[in-house]
Hints:
Blueprint: E1 34-37, E2 40-43, E3 47-48, E4 52-59, E5 63-66, E6 72-74
Antiparallel strand pairs: 1-2, 3-4, 4-5, 5-6
Amino acid sequence: MSKTPEEAPKEKEEEKKEKPVKKKKEEKGAFAFYKIESDQISRLRPVCERCGPGYFMADHGDRYTCGHCGFTRYKVAEK
Ligand SMILES: [Zn+2]
């Protein structure tokens, strides 16, 4: 039988160092896809035609792509 010395967790309040503030990455939750303007929610990105509503497509400049099925839709160039 070996007796292990119980280490009481010491409260080291004083040694609490200030953590370097990490730059928060742009959160890309569901909210990132919506723009809320005075009670109105407008979609900033199109939804995938294949996957249906709920699957947003990523903006790639001149086209949108769906990360779910890989569907690519080119933006209609307006002239
Ligand atoms: Zn899709």
